C-alpha cells in the first residue's frame, strides 16, 4: 500500500466534555507513515449539537459517514469535502410535542449490482407494538419500504454494526430475562433483503464484550478471551469461491482489557500492522505476530474529550453523498491530494 493510500485512512470520533453536553467531531490520522494528529471538524448541521448528541454513527466505502440524531434525523456526510444530504425519516412526521425517541440501529451499504446505496433501519416505531421492525431506504428511489419484523432475537447492541460488500452485520442477543449468556452474529443482505445467521467457531459470550470491525474488506470480531487471563483476541472471517466462510484467529494480545475501553475501540490493518485506537486517545500498533510495535498518543483527544461516543474508521474521498449513482465515479481517482486537503481545511 502506498503512502498516498495510507494518508487516506482516518478515524472519525464524536465525544464531548463533562460540563458541556455538545458533541464535538474530530478526524484522526492513522500512525505509522506520518504523524498522527486530531483535527476538529465543524458540525455539518449548524446548531444541531445544541439540540442533542449523535445517537448513531456508521460508515461505508467512498468516505461517506452515516450520522443519526434523535427523532430519526438521518444524514449522509462526507467530512473531507463537507457535503451532506438529509435522508427522510421512516417514521411518520409528528408534532414536535408528540415526538418520541425510539431504540434503533442503522446500517449503510452499497449494492453494486443495481448501483444503489441503501440504509437499513432496525428498531421500534410508534405502531410496532413493542417489537422491532426492519425498514430499507433506497437512495436511487429516494424512498423507504417495510421489510418486516426483525428476527426473533430480543436485543441488539447499539454500536455493533458494520457493512461489507452490500451486507450489514450486527451482534444480537437472546432474551435477557432468560439469562442466556450468548450472542449471535446476524447478517442482512441489502440486495436480497434477507437476514441470515453467521456461524462462529465457538460460543460468543456476553462477558467477552464482542465487537465487530472491517479488516481488509472482511468481517472481523474482537473479544476478551476469559475473565481470568483477560487476553484479547482478533478473529478474521474470509469467504471462498463457493461463499463458504472460514474464521481464523489472527492475533492474541495479553491483558488488553482496561475497563470500558473495549466498548470504544476500533481497529484497521495497514500493511502487516494492526492498529487499535482506544477511547483514551492513543493508538496501539501490533504486528500480526502479536508483538506490540509502538504506542502513539494523540494529545488532542485526551485533553479535549472527557468521553468518546463513537469511533468509526473511514477513507477520505471526493465522493459526494448527493451523487446517487457512483459507477462512473469509481473510474476516477477518489483520493484527496495533500494540496486539496489543505484547501478544504482552510475554508
UniProtKB/TrEMBL annotation:
InterPro entries: F-box-assoc_dom_typ1, F-box-assoc_interact_dom, Gal_Oxase/kelch_b-propeller, SCF_F-box_component. Residues 59-319 form the F-box associated beta-propeller type domain. It comes from the Eukaryota. This is F-box associated beta-propeller type 1 domain-containing protein. It comes from Solanum commersonii (Commerson's wild potato).
